[in-house]
Design goal:
The protein is mainly α. The protein has four helices and no strands. Helix 3 runs antiparallel to helix 4.
């Protein structure tokens, strides 16, 4: 999907972005932030591979982030 001609057409920066995404790493500097990396990576990968739509991925991310926040809330205040 991300490598499709339709997606890359007339937008050369997209190709560079798609090539960088598998190697990108983002960890928020908060207690438990390492757990968010797994949530974000899985959802981004599934979306880029066409396994789920963007809205579904965002909804799942919201649910998982709420669960994460409840777990780590005592350390975030």
């Amino acid at each position: 999907m991300g490598n499709s001609a339709e997606y890359l057409q007339n937008e050369p920066r997209r190709k560079a972005f798609i090539e960088m995404v598998p190697h990108a790493f983002w960890t928020p500097p908060v207690p438990g932030g390492h757990e968010l990396v797994d949530v974000v990576a899985a959802l981004v990968n599934d979306t880029l591979q066409g396994k789920r739509g963007v809205r579904d991925a965002l909804g799942e991310a919201e649910d998982q982030t709420k669960t994460w926040a409840e777990k780590w809330r005592p350390y975030l205040q």
